[in-house]
Amino acid sequence: MPDETSAITTDQVQHLANLARIALTPDEIAHLAVELGSIVDSVRKVTEVATPDVPATSHPIPLQNVFRQDVVGEVLTPEQALAGAPDSFDGRFRVSAILGEEQ
Amino acid sequence: MTDDLTRLPAAELAALLTAREVSSVEATRASLNRIAAVDGDLHAFLHTAPEAALRTASEIDRRRADGYDVGPLGGVPIAIKDVLCTKDMPSTAASKILEGWIPPYDATVVARLRSANLVPLGKTNMDEFAMGSSTEHSAYGPTRNPWDRDRIPGGSGGGSAAAVAAFEAPFALGSDTGGSIRQPAAVTGTVGVKPTYGGVSRYGAIALASSLDQVGPVSRTVLDAALLHDVIGGHDPRDSTSLDELWPSFADAARAGRAAGDLTGVRVGVVRELGGDGFQAGVRQRFDEALAVLAAAGAEIVEVSAPHFEYAVAAYYLILPAEASSNLAKYDGVRFGLRVEPEGGGTVEQVMAATRGAGFGPEVKRRIILGTYALSAGYYDAYYGSAQKVRTLIQRDFDAAFASSDVLVSPSAPTTAFTFGEKMDDPLAMYLNDITTIPANLAGVPGMGLPIGLAPEDGLPVGIQIMAPAREDVRLYRIGATLEALLEEKWGGPLLDRLPELETAGSAHLAPPPGPGTEPDGGTR
Amino acid sequence: MAALMSFEEALEKFEPVLGFEVHVELSTATKMFSAAPNDFGGDPNTNIAPVDLGLPGSLPVVNEQAVRYSISLGLALGCSIAESSRFARKNYFYPDTAKNYQISQYDEPIAFDGEVEVELDDGTLVKIPIERAHMEEDAGKLTHVGGSTGRIQGAEYSLVDYNRAGVPLVEIVTRMIFGTEHRAPEIARAYVATIRDIVRSLGVSEARMERGNLRCDANVSLRRRGTTTLGTRTETKNVNSLRSVERAVRYEIQRQAAVLDAGGTITQETRHWHEDTGTTSPGRPKSDADDYRYFPEPDLLPVVPSRQLVAELRAALPESPAAFRRRLQTEYGFTESEFRDIINANLLVEMEQTVAAGAAPAQARKWWLGEILRIANARGVEPGTLISPLHLSELIALVETGMLTDRLGRQVLEGVVAGEGSPDDVVEARGLAVVSDDTALLAAIDEALATQPDVLAKIRDGKVQAAGAVIGAVMKAMKGQADAARVRELVLERANS
Q: What is the pLDDT confidence band of residue B3, given thresholds at 50, 70 and 90?
């Protein structure tokens, strides 16, 4: 359970922005910290009634076992695939250097 | 009135087309002319495709002349919310990050429109990625409410609602994640339906929150909504959540309801929690009058309680941002859409962050950050997990309520249209505006919004929301059409007959709508 | 290079604890969530549907065959099959992940709680506990361009091909494996070999490690003798052959032991295995960035396998590798040690397929353990990658029928290994068939006899071994493309006519 006051720090916002890969200005971060604090205070209301005996619902209409046969269908042409690419080379999408590691 | 084709409901226009008294080119040109006249001020459209529309219309006319069956709606023009993929028009969800993006496929609903020989006019404005209740969050500037150009047309589907209300199109497609069809219908005096979750395919609808999104019709009459629902609905194997079942004809239900004029034996449940002090007086007054109309027609009015609806907004603003934070991760400048390089270049991580920082508007960023928070380690159970439990409780409330009523009703929105800027600095106030519409999305049940008059205090439209159990969309059309007929009888005509004259391209003091205005395809309309 | 402690000393001071995550690419016709072909060898970005590219509005739909394969695999691993299983999104940004989330399984995997029996070289059986096997999708492929190494460090830019994105995977996760002691590297190798044999016998994957069909991440930690506290583990990735699995585990044990013994600490991190140097190097340390924010995939519904389906798939399971071994040993009639050699070379599946294709077990064994293994060792590759069982059986048939001598057979093998086609293709292209035309042989014999006139007399005197010199000359003249036995017959006939 989160602590009683949901104050969100600017460090937290910066951390969340990193996770969400969004570059934010210091001004945006400051604003968001305040706004998120009040939004979180409001939405934490859900914890009042979410008791352990209540099951979670992830899909509004319960269905199961929805499958596709293993049969090849349409694919994009390479031109279609690359049509929206900001940058491509040799049939592939080009991105600037990656310093991280593969997951 | 028939001399102005744009004033005709789709069903009546379709009848003239079928009788070959009017051509699709004439109908399409009438809509395009109306758009040219009023949309400079309204800004309901982000993109129009006049040449393609006229070409399509002329092709349909030719085929009809050659004796082909072009279907009951063949040749009727239609507007499409920009959240839906169209392979011949930009599909941007009103975001800068998708500026100019043309998908290699049509959304299933768009493909079905084309198969039914409807004529796409263009793409309508919306809040960016459907996040908002006013269209003020469109990256391309807001849409005005045709009833009052200083007020919002609702959101996120304000463009579709305004286009239909302003007679720019007979009907339109919308999408509804927490009220984005029903709330704009309420504030523009139009009809909108959020179908049962899974009733209409989501394939090709740019996702906001996958477990809540549903595409639906936006129109001026219940019958038109039903006709459009019949076209777009039904199973789609490309959407796993699509319901694989046969649906009755909603148009038949609407016609039957309109003809019946009687609601004897129908139990109408009034949801106690969706009304009261927080609701504008004129909204409450018109709603009570509508209940009286229903009762006079023989309906049994019962009060029902849905004790967990008060938790719906909180649950919604956890589930939606959580799903959206993941759904919107794909906008990273690698495969499509905007790419922004940081000054002096950078690693791909930095390019992604810069792209998303520049490409998303403030509301989108706010919700992504909120959703990231709700899903992150240590908070998941308390926030996202609890919200999913509230969802169960709300479903149980619906089950209990539907045990004693055939349909549930509430005002579609707590207030009439508010003014631009009124809630922009207060996201929480904006979120609370969706209190009436959100429960249906959380539970997956269908809901319809239709006009029930103008609020005495401001002369602006008020809507009623009718909800039915999941898979019982047909009840909305039957009961909605009856109520619509009774109200029109009372009013002496449709509510939209009272729409004020709009600013036209020829008229004086044309001001651009507030906010940025460049179109997503880089041009102007 | 990191300091290493000798393996023996490391084992004296520490107890190794292992764990494995093995990714198996399923050989379905289409991808996990799209109808694009499951085939990523071709031109870049040619086998992709909108969902593989994460295009807006696209939606995933589960491939039923992939689910069936996953259940079969789970059953073969001795797992329970979930009554209800669901997909989840694993959220992280990386350019090879088109949606910037991977559809995987988290809290409700399709299979869980299994056990795999692994047989070591000397016949010892070890039980490896399986925690879970779950379904997920593969990522695209990045090529790093610029810089000198072609590696990620120093690259100027990277190119992304999404053909592999969405290929169905099953990830098999073990529990912590205790008690492996000095056999840890050997057990690691045997475990992965067993998984490979299981998925191949099921026919759910080609399981070619060198092609990335089967990928192993090896977790190693050390516990100091006399303590109960578990050590920090490292996860070594990019271990793409059985031999490397063994070497990487051994290396990590020696490296970690040296660090700990010197008073250092082990960082919880991903490490990369370098085949060329036989070492591991640190990758990205685990951090906050690994907050994957899993949540149930809203675009997909739960998979609820009927008990009838599970029973059907269970009934259709092929015999386990252990039972398979026992059966073949009986059928082939080899001695214990002859059979053990095959197991140790990990060639039982190849043997079985070669025999099934028509070769005699003794011949199949001779070729696999002889010439093929020799080439494989020289090149540092798995023998099974050099020639298919079908081609080998054809080659053996050519030798058995006298079309080829053993020596020519080896040349044909070289040709097949070099990619020149089937044995028939190589024979034809290289003109390698045995000269079975007696006329040509007799001409060569007469010529040889003419230069060695005394040979005939010796043979007639009963000194048959004198024929050797002539046979040698004839074989030389025929450039080896003659059947020496036939030449000998002909020489003796000539002498006695």
A: low
